[in-house]
Amino acid sequence: MAEIVLDQVTKVFDDGYEAVKQMDLEIADGEFMILVGPSGCGKSTALRMIAGLEDISSGELRIGGEEVNDRSPKDRDIAMVFQNYALYPHMTVRENMGFALSLAGVDKEEINRKVEDAARTLDLTQHLDRRPANLSGGQRQRVAMGRAIVREPKAFLMDEPLSNLDAKLRVQMRTEVARLQSDLETTTVYVTHDQTEAMTLGDRVAVMRAGVLQQVGAPAELYDQPRNLFVAGFIGSPAMNFMPGEISGGKLRIPIGEVEAPQGAGREGKVIAGIRPENFEDAEIVGDLTQERGITFEAEIDLVESLGSDLYAYFHVESEGIQSDQLADLVGERLDETGAAGMREGEEQIVARLEPTSKVRRREKAQLWADTAKLHLFDPESGERLGEKTAASAEAG
Amino acid sequence: MKRGSRDYVLWSIGIVVVLAFALIPVIWLISISLKPPNEITDQRFIPASVSFDNYKSLFEGGIDDSPFLKPLINSIAIALITTVVAITLASFTAYAIARLEFPGKRLILAGALAIAMFPPISTVGPLFDMWRALGIYDTYLGLIIPYLTFALPLAIYVLVAFFREIPWDLEQAAQVDGATPWQAFRKVILPLAAPGVFTAAILVFIFCWNDFVFAISLTSSDASRTVPAALAFFTGESTFTAPTGSIAAAAVVVTIPIIVFVLIFQRRIVSGLTAGAVKG
User: Which of B176, B179, B187 sits opposite A78 (nearest CB)?
Assistant: First the structure.
């Protein structure tokens, strides 16, 4: 076990494309670190540099205090789980899991003992003598995990290990991975584009965009104190709602009403306001007392989705449009998640998560309440968060 | 159902026709080889009496006097050596071509193809002179070199296609598992490429085994003459008898190693060996 330190690590490909830009990241011994971001953000490249499968163009990579930039993968003592598992098809499950140990010259009995221990943990005992071709997707995934854990390496590197599983199995394996990691206490770097995995699995999460690390912190911190528009929009499902706002004379005016400008906003002029879906509520449900610390407004509901435990109400507000590169990067991701296509010019679609007992109906006007204490404000130019920063997020910058 | 059975009948007829077309000459050859010398011209498809005299005559006199035994050994040795050398070199070359980006990669492949397409007969004359000058005329080496120049491109072509199909991730997984590049190649890539390697090996072996042009031109004695060339020097019992029976028997005998070779390796050419490596 060991800590992993990336110090100004940069990757420039032969064609000049800069996939990872001066990345600084310290992963503590035994920590479960998630690298998350949309596709093409450089997270896999970063992981492959840690593994030694990609050269590091500049900067320094240390594992367990030793610089390993020029060491080949086999000398780094790390195990990797590939997205497509990369099991050796000509070997049985037992041979697959024991391959690294047999290369290391461990004697046969020892290998057998370790493989069987790992197989027991992963519930693979009865499949040990089968070949990968005869296993189901979930079993192959577990073999890939098993191949990593039998080695007791310094660190696990996982490259979207669950993305090839169907939804139900993915949830099951997610808890499995979390349990394994907390049992083994091995430093783990886990790459995913799925923000649910990021939020539920990691001790800390590192959000990347276009090769640049955006924010590193505990999941709750990223959720409550996103450093910029990109992190705010990426973390959370359904995603945070954004609308244009303007601060003047100590008041913040947003399309759904006007509130006192939060302290520490420290400026006048245009801002982008963000509010999470769960910070809305049906005005009839919230008590009068609570209502006073937010704003109540009327909106015409475009669509209602009832999930049983929650109810999502979609409505729109007038807006001259929000321009931000950071948000543009998110559009593709958001379309996948919420299907928020078909927006018209001059409108922003807003999603509100309401109590399932709410009586709002499609195409009817409803009184909604927004908890404006939970508003996030961002600079429309730089996308940076306005207002106080927590110590941790300031440090990550 | 009706349609199914009609298809079945049509397919059966088709298969019988193809089988007959392919096998009748072989059966005929076997039939001739089993006839005693005085019945060879009796024009019967099934021999009236069966005799193994033709086969016996091939091996009579042991290694020194038999017209067939030494060439058979030469054929086996030359074809095997060529196959081993060609496959070893070709798997290194093909691996590099499939895996690495380097200048001149296309040139190598194009060159290999061009050489494989070159008519062998046009090189025979120069080779004859060169080999005599170099002193490798009528030696194993004298045949193995020209065989390699044709077998190697063939093997490279087949192997590049197979290596390209092997997922790159597997090799990286092996590297992370602690394998040196050589170990990753030998323990992961080569076993997966085995079907391709054996396919290439069979093709190369058959090419060497069947060659007549080089064998007849670059050999002059039993020291290195292979079977196809040796058959041309078979003589009858007297000047006026054709050696039909012994040639037929020899032809049957030289077919056997090919059949054995294909049968052995066919079992290794298991389709779908790579299935399940990565999620497709």
Answer: B176
**B30 touches A: beta carbon within 8 Å:** no
Residues B111 and B159 in one domain: yes
| A26, B116, B118 from B122: Cα distances, Å | 68, 13, 8
Sequence-distant (≥ 6) Cβ neighbours of residue A287 within 8 angstroms: none
* Number of domains forming the structure of chain B: 2
d(CA B182, CA A264): 61
Token couple for A172: 């099951």
Is residue B130 located within the same domain as residue B90? yes
Pair B174, B250 in one domain = yes
CA A77 to chain B, closest CA, distance in angstroms equals 8
Cross-chain Cβ contact B172/A82 below 8 Å:
yes
Residue A161 and residue A145 in contact, taking contact as beta carbons nearer than 8 Å: yes
Amino acid at A322: I
Distant-in-sequence, close-in-space partners of B257: CB < 8 Å, separation ≥ 6: B76, B209
SS3 A290: helix
Q: For position B192, which CATH number holds?
A: 1.10.3720.10
> A169-200, pLDDT tens digit by residue?
888 889 989 999 999 999 999 999 888 899 99
Closest Cα of chain B to A146: distance in Å? 12
Say what the pLDDT of residue A283 is: 87
Concatenated DSSP letters of A325-388: HHHHHHHHHHHHHH----PPTTEEEEEEEE-TT----TTSEEEEEE-GGG-EEE-TTT-BBPS-
Looking at the structure, do residues B199 and B94 belong to the same domain, yes or no? yes
Domain that holds residue B68: 61-273
Q: Are residues B70 and B42 in the same domain?
A: no
Does one domain contain both B236 and B145?
A: yes
SS3 call for B199: helix
**Average pLDDT of the segment spanning A64-91:** 91
Note whether B148 and B215 are same-domain residues. yes
Note whether B279 contacts A164, CB cutoff 8 Å.
yes
Residue A215 and residue A223 in contact, taking contact as beta carbons nearer than 8 Å: no
The interface residues of chain B toward chain A in range 174-233, judged by CB-CB distance below 8 A, are 174-180, 183, 187-188, 191-192
Minimum CA–CA partner of A104 in chain B: B178
What's the pLDDT tens digit per position in B20-59? 999 999 999 999 999 887 888 788 888 888 888 888 888 8
Cα–Cα distance measured from residue B47 to residue B36, given in angstroms and rounded to the nearest whole number: 9
Is residue B56 one of the residues assigned to a domain? no
Angle, in degrees to the nearest 10, between helices B190-210 and B140-165: 140
Q: Which residue has the higher pLDDT, B58 or A117?
A: A117
Question: Does any domain span residue B280?
Answer: no
**Is there a domain that residue B211 lies in?**
yes
| Mean pLDDT, chain B, integer | 85
Is the same domain home to B150 and B117? yes
Task: Express each pLDDT in A129-163 by its tens digit.
Answer: 999 989 998 899 999 999 999 999 999 999 999 98
A66-67 and A280-282 as β-strands: parallel, antiparallel, unpaired?
A: unpaired
Looking at the complex, does the CB of residue B235 fall below 8 Å from at least one CB of chain A?
no
Nearest chain B residue to A161, by CA: B279
The pLDDT value recorded for residue B74 is 94
Global ipTM? 0.78
Question: What is residue A38's three-state secondary structure?
Answer: coil
Q: Looking at the domain assignment, is residue B139 inside a domain?
A: yes
The model's confidence at residue A258, banded by pLDDT at 50, 70 and 90, is confident
Phi, psi (deg, nearest 5) at residue B179 = -85, 145
> Is A137 in CB contact (< 8 Å) with chain B?
yes
Q: Given an 8 Å threshold on Cβ–Cβ distance, is A84 in contact with B167?
A: yes
**pLDDT at res. B233:** 85
